[in-house]
Structure formats: C-alpha cells, structure tokens
C-alpha cells in the first residue's frame, strides 16, 4: 500500500482501525500492526518524532500533494512549516566551482530567515549541509532510509550538528535500511517540502534532475546554475534552462527578487502600501508575476 492508495483508504475509513478490522487477511493485518508497534518502540528509544499527515507539525507544503507520505519521521527541531524553505541539490561529483557556489548561496541567506533542504548525499548535498552548519542556517537532511542506517557512512559525523541546527527527515522508520529505489522516491519530499529548488550542478542524468522534475510537476519554482558547455556536470543545468524548466540562478539577491522575497524594508521602499506581513507561497507567486508582467486581469 503506497501513499496514494493509503490516502484513499483513509478517506473511506476515517477511523483507521476499521481498515484493519475489515482486512480480508486478518493474519497479515496483525503482522502489520506488530510492525507498527515495533516502529513506535524504536522511535521512542531514539527520540524520533512521528508525524501523521493530518498533524499540525506535518509539512503543509507536502500535505496536499497526491503522492506525499502519510507518515514522516523527524529528528531535530527544524520547523517543517517555516516561512521560507529552499532545496539545494546537485551531483555527487561536485566540482570546486559547484561547492563555492553552494557556499556563497548559504552565506548569502544569513539575514533572510531561510531553511535550506538537501538529500545528505555526497557532493553538493553535503556541501550544502556543511555550509549551513558553518553559518548556522537551519537545514533539513531528507534521507532515503532510516536514521539507524545512515548513508553514506562518511557523512555521519555531521548528523549531530544538523540535528542541533535543523533536522533529519525520512518516510522510513529508523530501523529500515536504505534501498536503491528509495533514493529517487525520496527526492519528491525534497521538492515538495520547498518553495523553490536550486540545481547547482547536474549531469545529463541523475538524482538532481529527478528532484527538478518533481519540483516542476508540483508547480514550484526551479532554478539552475548555468555552466560551461564543456563541463559534464553543467549539462543537466543547461538543459533545464534551455527547456524552460528552470530559471537561471545568478545570485541570491536575484533569486529573492524573483520570488518576491525581498526584505520587508526593501519591499516597503518599493511598495509602501504593502504591510510587513509574510506572504504565502501562492501570494508570493502572484506578486512575482505582477512584478514581471505589469498589470494583469484576473
């Protein structure tokens, strides 16, 4: 039972116990409940928070997506419903240029109350998390397995700092080891959790482009860092831009302007009629469109 079918069941049976009571194979239902009990006990031992999709703390950006997980496991204090959340992903074979772009991006967010998300993988992902630790920016690492089976192992040394300044997040219980097909599926959480996704470096194929596709299909803003034509890990970014699936990422300031995320002081200077309220994702999208196009009808 995947997330789509599970949500249909929840709609039909708001009292979840009815699903198990009416199950054709009662023995199977009993085994599933035993697994759930084990998961609960492991989470208690490891101080892992269990988030059901109807809980207030469950990320609301994810909640209404058709394939969002019913359950998320969280370790850390990061707000999954922070006002501004941005995903930054890229190739596992990050170049020095890619790492420098990532570092500069993180450093530029210091005064803008942004939470940064990535996938805890080698390359750009871990460069993002390390920079967040250095500059004390909240960061969320979305894993493709349980917290007891961290992958890659060499990134384990950053877990404590990530938890102190953000959170680990997974749709898999702590005792579930990662599997190859969990990684691409995990990317939908990275994209869905965020207002926008920035692809720093990407080859012609790879996980970063899967994340970009999820974000594009979820109607989220996608940005890509352009690169030299002879660099293999710029090919994916250049293709996204060429195919109008991503806007060009040139600087954090331009990124903020595109999303209408200027600081309140700057925004009021341009539009004194606007209050200092924080805009929702949809409101920001409309304001950004008006900024680019001028007056538009409904």
Indicate the percent of residues in helices. Answer: 40-55%
Query: How are the strands of the largest sheet arranged?
Result: 1-2-6-5-4-3-7-8-9
How many strand segments? 9
The count of helical stretches stands at 13
**Which outline best applies?**
globular
What is the C-alpha radius of gyration, as a whole number of Å?
20 Å
Distance between the termini: 41 Å
Question: Quick gist of this model?
Answer:
The chain has 298 residues and is of the alpha/beta class.
Summary tags:
single chain, 13 helices, globular, 298 residues, alpha/beta, 9-stranded mixed beta sheet
In words, what does this structure look like?
The protein is α/β, with parallel strands linked by helices and 298 residues long. The protein is 44% helix and 13% strand. It has helices at residues 3-12, 17-21, 26-46, 60-63, 96-108, 124-135, 159-165, 182-193, 207-217, 235-242, 252-258, 264-270, 281-293; strands at residues 49-52, 71-76, 85-89, 115-118, 139-142, 166-170, 196-199, 221-224, 247-248. Strands 1-2-6-5-4-3-7-8-9 form a nine-stranded mixed beta sheet, sandwiched between helices.
Task: Draw up the topology in text.
Elements: H1 3-12, H2 17-21, H3 26-46, E1 49-52, H4 60-63, E2 71-76, E3 85-89, H5 96-108, E4 115-118, H6 124-135, E5 139-142, H7 159-165, E6 166-170, H8 182-193, E7 196-199, H9 207-217, E8 221-224, H10 235-242, E9 247-248, H11 252-258, H12 264-270, H13 281-293
Parallel strand pairs: 3-4, 3-7, 4-5, 5-6, 7-8, 8-9
Antiparallel strand pairs: 1-2, 2-6
């Amino acid at each position: 039972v995947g997330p789509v079918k599970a949500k249909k069941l929840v709609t039909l049976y708001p009292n979840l116990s009815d699903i198990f009571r009416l199950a054709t194979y009662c023995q199977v239902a009993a085994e599933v409940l035993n697994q759930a009990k084990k998961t609960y006990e492991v989470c208690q031992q490891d101080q892992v928070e269990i988030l059901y999709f109807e809980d207030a703390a469950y990320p609301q950006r994810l909640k209404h997506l058709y394939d969002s997980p019913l359950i998320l496991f969280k370790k850390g204090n990061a707000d999954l419903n922070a006002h501004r959340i941005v995903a930054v992903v890229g190739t596992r074979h990050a170049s020095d240029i890619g790492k420098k772009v990532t570092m500069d991006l993180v450093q530029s967010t210091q005064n803008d109350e942004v939470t940064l998300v990535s996938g805890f993988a080698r390359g750009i992902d871990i460069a993002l998390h390390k920079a967040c630790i250095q500059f004390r920016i909240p960061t969320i690492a979305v894993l493709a397995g349980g917290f007891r089976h961290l992958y890659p192992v060499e990134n384990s040394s950053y877990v404590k700092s990530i938890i102190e300044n953000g959170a680990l997040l997974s749709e898999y219980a702590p005792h579930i080891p990662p599997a190859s097909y969990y990684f691409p599926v995990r990317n939908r959480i990275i994209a869905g959790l965020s207002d926008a996704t920035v692809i720093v470096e990407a080859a012609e194929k790879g996980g970063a482009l899967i994340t970009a596709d999820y974000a594009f299909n979820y109607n989220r803003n996608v940005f890509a860092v352009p690169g030299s034509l002879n660099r293999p890990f710029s090919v994916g970014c250049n293709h996204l831009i060429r195919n109008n699936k991503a806007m060009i990422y040139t600087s954090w300031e331009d990124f903020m302007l595109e999303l209408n995320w200027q600081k309140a002081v700057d925004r009021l200077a341009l539009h004194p009629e606007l209050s200092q309220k924080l805009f929702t994702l949809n409101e920001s999208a409309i304001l950004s469109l008006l900024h680019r196009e001028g007056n538009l009808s409904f």
